[in-house]
Backbone:
């Protein structure tokens, strides 16, 4: 594979599984200097093996102090950042209309606040790169579920919708400071996060296909990177239907109580 003639300094979270791992391998093969973050040190070291352009940086995205320490290490090694890709997250479903604040927090802590922690500590490094002449970019993984309310996704979808809104608003405030913001809205991807889903996943793609779509979007500096497009355009279309039709379609997707396993589904995306 040809190496990028203009390697960038990149921080990637959620780097040891699914989309994150596929992205990490491609970034490293392309010759970029990549700080790789997940909670597990062993997984990071395996991923970084044989890559002198990889920097394992274990951290807990839900812990602000941990992310501050990670950013300080990266700044010392890289002297700034050209791009951050905040990909780490999780999915916890709420079953049968039962609301549990703990389960809601289990979604928001990594998906929303974990990304906010990362942006907060990375911004000084991005501004430094801007002063050095770069055009830095913030990238974060949301979900196609942010486009449309779905059953059982009250907490997960809300965390991703909140993230998308935050980033789209931040984009406006950072535009005049020379920092771009891109939001990734994937459909179903075959990862450890989704492999235990007990429902059909139409048009699901592999992590490698997801990484390819993300790279194409990043190369074009697209603000909204969504894929597979046949699926995401359909979800977007459903999201703008009249409320009565959206409710009717959504109700058809609700599982009956006697079909429900009645156990929360929680998978890490790390």
Residues:
């Amino acid at each position: 594979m040809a190496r990028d003639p203009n390697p960038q300094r990149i921080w990637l979270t959620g780097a040891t599984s699914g989309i994150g791992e596929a992205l990490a391998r491609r970034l490293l093969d392309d010759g970029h200097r990549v700080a790789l973050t997940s909670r597990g040190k062993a997984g990071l070291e395996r991923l970084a093996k044989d890559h002198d352009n990889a920097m394992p940086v274990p951290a807990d995205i839900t812990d602000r102090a941990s992310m501050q320490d990670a950013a300080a290490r990266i700044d010392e090694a890289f002297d700034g950042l050209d791009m951050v890709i905040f990909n780490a997250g999780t999915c916890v479903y709420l079953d049968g209309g039962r609301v549990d604040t703990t389960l809601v927090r289990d979604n928001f802590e990594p998906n929303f606040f974990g990304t906010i922690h990362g942006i907060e500590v990375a911004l000084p490094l991005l501004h430094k790169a801007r002063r050095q002449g770069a055009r830095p970019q913030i990238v974060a993984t949301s979900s196609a579920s942010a486009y449309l309310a779905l059953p059982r996704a009250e907490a997960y979808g809300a965390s991703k919708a909140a993230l998308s809104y935050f980033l789209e608003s931040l984009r406006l405030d950072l535009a005049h400071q020379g920092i771009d913001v891109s939001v990734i809205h994937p459909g179903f991807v075959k990862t450890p996060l989704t492999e235990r889903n007990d429902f059909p996943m139409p048009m699901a793609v592999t992590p490698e296909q997801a990484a390819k779509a993300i790279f194409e979007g990043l190369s074009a500096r697209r603000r909204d990177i969504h894929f597979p497009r046949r699926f995401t355009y359909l979800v977007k279309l459903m999201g703008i239907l009249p409320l009565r039709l959206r409710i009717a379609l959504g109700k058809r997707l609700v599982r009956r109580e006697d079909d429900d396993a009645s156990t929360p589904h929680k998978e890490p995306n790390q």
Remarks:
- Helices lie at 18-29, 41-48, 64-78, 101-131, 154-174, 207-219, 229-239, 243-252.
- Confidence is low (pLDDT under 50) at residues 257-270.
